[in-house]
Amino acid sequence: MELDQIKKQYDKYVLATYARTDLCLVKGKDTVVEDINGKKYLDFFPGWVVSGVGHRNSYVVKRMKDQMDKIFHVSNNYYNELQGELSQKIIENSFKGKVFYGNSGAEANEGAIKLARKYGSEEGRYEIITMTRSFHGRTMATLSATGQDKVKKGFAPLLEGFIHVPFNDIDAVKKAITKKTVAVMLEPIQGEGGINIADKKYMKQLRDLCDEKKILLILDEVQTAMGRTGKMFGYKYFGITPDIMTLAKSLGGGLPIGAFVVRSEFADVLQPGNHGSTFGGSPLICAAALGVFDSLTKGGLLKQCNIMSSYFKKRLIELKKKQPIIKTIKIVGLMIGLEIAVEDASNVYKKCLEKGLLINCTQGNILRIMPPLCVTKAQADKAIKILEDVLSES
Q1: Of 363, 354, 344, which Cα lies nearest the Cα of 387?
Q2: What is the distance between the alpha carbons of residues 248 and 257, in angstroms, rounded to a whole number?
Q3: E strands of the chain, at which residues?
Q4: 174 and 277: one domain?
């Protein structure tokens, strides 16, 4: 089928909730994808890092093939062995606690919000402090938690009980705490907000403050988990441990999954009937997630991320010297943001696309680059050459 025919189908049958690029991808392997016309691209923003370990990662494929001959879905009224195995894998690589499964980051964050409110319900505590420029999802609760007005227009009245304060400002958090405060919720690195990285000192102050005030610290690790920062989970980069951690995107290796992990001390807050998910934690999806863990450990992708992070940093510093249009380089692991000295960097994104490089533009002038962890030095060099050529034209 031709792209024009597909576009006509979308126009007639699919809700126009996305600003779509004229691109239809039909194949992918590791860092390379192919469109319907046979053109290949370096995918350095693989589905908002859903394919964070690469398209059709061999470990993920193997686990899925093994499971596909058995059973796809099991009701959560029963046990399924892979959900138990995946939960053990998550806990052994994070902190003592328990896991709940849904299907997306928004669902994971929604569950964390519900747990926090249930935790504070007997004392009348329900307010959650979140950060400006944050993004937590598009359900009514996660939209209300998000600290960006542009995504909230037209959806009032929003859910009450969310207080937004500036990111990286511990004094603002202290001032916002009241007798009704039950939690502080934030992304350790704001992705959609522009690759804004929390200060390590700030994160430790937050942890201490939450302990002092007996409020929960919730980390939204939908983008930062599964090796993206060079650590299995992003909180390890900051040297603190949250009370609740939410996961999604890369956890499924390309398949839909969301999860929140809660420390043992708070694992009994939600009881049977308090929360649920029809599809959450099904055997097939858990198989894929176990393949992701295999790729990070047995496959060496966690180590590869750190090697490539250093390489990207070196090459991008070299690029910045040649291209003064680059104002700031933000990088942790393979979570990269380039702040460009223009109001709108969308043309840079479009020109990179034309030259075979898929990246993202956010917050107007931030180029967001988050390649699969299996990226090679040769592929990094090719991408940076494309960026150099495009920026020279800007």
Answers
A1: 354
A2: 6
A3: 25-29, 32-35, 40-43, 97-102, 127-131, 162-165, 181-186, 189-190, 196-197, 216-220, 244-247, 258-263, 326-332, 335-340, 357-358, 360-362, 366-369
A4: yes
288 in Cβ contact with 64 (< 8 Å) = yes
Residue 394 has pLDDT above 90, yes or no: no
Specify whether 50 is located in the same domain as 75: no
Q: pTM score, two decimals? A: 0.97
Q: Using pLDDT thresholds of 50, 70 and 90, give the confidence band for residue 299.
A: very high
Instruction: Indicate if 233 and 359 belong to the same structural domain.
Output: no
Q: Reply yes or no on whether the pLDDT at 1 is more than 90.
A: no
Question: Residue 117 is inside which H or E element, if any?
Answer: helix 105-120
pLDDT at 33: 98
Q: How many domains does the chain have?
A: 2
The maximal CA–CA distance of the chain, rounded, in angstroms, is 61
Q: Can you tell me whether residue 348 is helix, strand or coil? A: helix
Q: Residue 201 belongs to what H/E stretch?
A: helix 200-213
Residues 286 and 307 in one domain: no
- Which of 297, 318, 346 is at the close of a domain? 297
Q: 144 and 190 in one domain?
A: yes
Q: How many CA atoms are closer than 13 Å to the CA of 226, on its beta-carbon side?
A: 31
What helix, strand, coil percent values describe the chain, rounded to 5? 40, 20, 40
Q: Judge whether 106 and 142 are in contact, CB under 8 Å.
A: yes
Rounded CA-CA distance 199/188 in Å is: 9
Cα torsion 116, 84, 250, 65: sign:
negative
- Report the C-alpha gap between 375 and 261 in whole angstroms: 29
Going by C-alpha positions, the residue among 382, 374, 367, 384 that lies closest to residue 52 is: 374
Residues 266 and 313 in one domain: no
Q: Residue 97 is part of which domain span?
A: 71-297
